[in-house]
Write a structure and sequence with these properties.
Blueprint (H helix, E strand, L loop, with lengths): L25 H21 L4 H32 L16
């Protein structure tokens, strides 16, 4: 199923991420927030979602992010235990945030 171009948002940063990794890229964060906010507003209007349904969907997203963080921590600690300095970079699944 092809994505509708209207459903996608260009979330590119004006500043490279590796420039200062410890600082959040607020331009990207704001664009993502605006897109999520628009989608929630549309879900209220079109699908007549309740607050609890939206809250459950956001909880599911939060859980997915937590799982990914735990996976990254596990990779880090396995590398540290094996004496490796850097991990092999793995490609994220295409459906990770769908």
């Amino acid at each position: 199923m092809a994505e509708d171009p209207e459903d996608t948002v260009d979330i590119k940063s004006e500043t490279p991420h590796d420039h200062k990794e410890h600082e959040p890229r607020w331009d990207v964060i704001e664009k993502l927030h605006e897109k999520i906010d628009e989608d929630i507003d549309e879900a209220f209007r079109v699908n007549r979602l309740s607050f609890i349904e939206v809250d459950i969907a956001l909880l599911m997203i939060s859980e997915k992010i937590q799982q990914q963080k735990m996976e990254m921590y596990n990779i880090y600690f396995k590398q540290k235990d094996n004496g490796e300095e850097e991990a092999e970079i793995k490609k994220a699944p295409d459906n990770l945030y769908k």
